[in-house]
Amino acid sequence: MGILDFLSKQFVDVIDWVEEPGDLGIRYPMQDREIQNGAQLTVREGQIAFFYNEGQIADVFKAGQHTLNTANLPLLTALQNWDKGFKSPFKADVYFFSLREQAGLKWGTAQPVTVRDKEFGPLRVRAFGSYSFRVDDVAVFATKLMGTTEHLRVSDVEGQLRGVIATAMATALGGGEIAFLDMAANQQALSDRLKDAVDAAFKQWGLACPSFFVESVSLPEEVQAYLDKASSMRVVGDLDRYAKFQAADAIEAAASNQGGLGGIGASAAAGMAIGQQMAGALGGGGGGGAPGEDAFAQIEKLHKLMTLGAISQAEFDAKKAELLSRIR
Questions:
Q1: Structure confidence by residue, pLDDT tens digits, 167-220
Q2: What is the 3-state secondary structure (H, E, C) of the chain?
Q3: What pLDDT sits at residue 17?
Q4: pTM of this prediction exceeds 0.90
């Protein structure tokens, strides 16, 4: 390689950046190189280029093809004290930034967020969904996140953004102004509320949050199990239906136990028997029992239900007293 070839490679006459998915910004490689006066700068749609002089923002170029000279580098020309006829190569730091929306990103609560629910009291809530962001204020973004980094990608800032989302969610929901059932039923309203909080938090880094979605709100499994039980109890209501509900639970528990009710086959038969006993022993006013059946037989059936756990001792005593009062 000749000396002239070596020297010609020290000057840059074409500057452009072909970004890849997930790219946010790059520092154009300029080490030991100078920009040729009259060089061509290409800034593609969805990009912006910043020229820096000794760490200070000089000139900014939006999408288009630009010829670099003193005419369109006014700030750099002033900072460098160039005259109007300046034709020599020059040095400057060039950064490209992507202004495209970075979509399809996921967020979620690593740990449940404790909220004070209006109906159920303190609850631990989990949630996850998706969001997007884009660079909105390039100067702030360049200062706060890009710095002197050679190449910044979405993956470099994702963890930081998810942390902000988790904090915004805890703040928005922690006051208990939204009941859990309302959260689950109206995820769009919850998404809109959290988007406002997240967008405000992103602004500190020069970012905007164009979209934010809550895709699921749930409780830990053990809490959900208790909530389901309580809901079932509210649906059951009166004593007769409650006793039948307990009997069904007792049959299910016995069937899952290898020794209970003689196994699965026996549990099915026992289930039918208990159903018949419940219909007779707990029928309204005793009218649901078999014809000619006396109170003592019904008391015996009630005792079997109590032994199985289908009814409580108090319920057995109350029904027993009622049946005995009829034969006195």
A1: 888 777 766 566 777 776 678 888 888 899 999 999 999 999 999 999 888 877
A2: CCHHHHHHCCEEEEECCCCCCCEEEEECCCCCCEEEEEEEEEECCCEEEEEEECCEEEEEECCEEEECCCCCCHHHHHHHCCCCCCCCCECCEEEEEECCCEEEEEEECCCCEEEEECCCEEEEEEEEEEEEEEECCHHHHHHHHHCCCCEEEHHHHHHHHHHHHHHHHHHHHHCCCCCHHHHHHCHHHHHHHHHHHHHHHHHHHCEECCCEEEEEEECCHHHHHHHHHHHHHHHHCCHHHHHHHHHHHHHHHHHHCCCHHHHHHHHHHHHHHHHHHHHHHCCHHHCCCCCCCCHHHHHHHHHHHHHHCCCCHHHHHHHHHHHHHHCC
A3: 95
A4: no
CB atoms within 10 A of CB 37: 18
